[in-house]
Amino acid sequence: MENYSKGESRTVHVPPPLSLEGAVEMKVTNGSKIRNLMGYAMSTLSDNNVRHITWNGTGNAISKTISCVEIMKRKVKGLHQITQIGCLRVEDFWEPKVEGLDSLKVNTNIPAISILLSKDPLDTNNPSSSTSSSSASSNSGCSRGRGSSCGSRVRSSGSGTVVVVVVEEMIVLL
What we know:
Helix content is 15%, strand content 39%.
């Protein structure tokens, strides 16, 4: 690339991140501390004027974004959720230094996630919408150690024992 000089650079969210008017936007980065994010998010969501919060993360921060959302759903019962995954497209334009070469456009796609949490019911027609119910979160006080049966129920029948595992599902819109 010694024959090219870097020109303009643009970033485009595909699709655009979820947002609602009046929602608090939490941008999670790889260097963000979960304790700091959760402290701010919990204090703002405890305010009665704030009804919605969006969590946005890209690249290596996606797992941290999901962790923050799951912690919030465990602490605040009855939240409604819509999840959207996509990418952050970075378009770099390179101009030639030598005559006879064409301009280049380099696209880099970085994975991204956007999660909207709301105290109010959201669009139930959206395939990625879900509600954290109190029955799915009722096991929050149990230990999560090795061999723990947290989140599972044991039912015994005449011929043997059947273990039913309760897992909260998260539907993601692609």
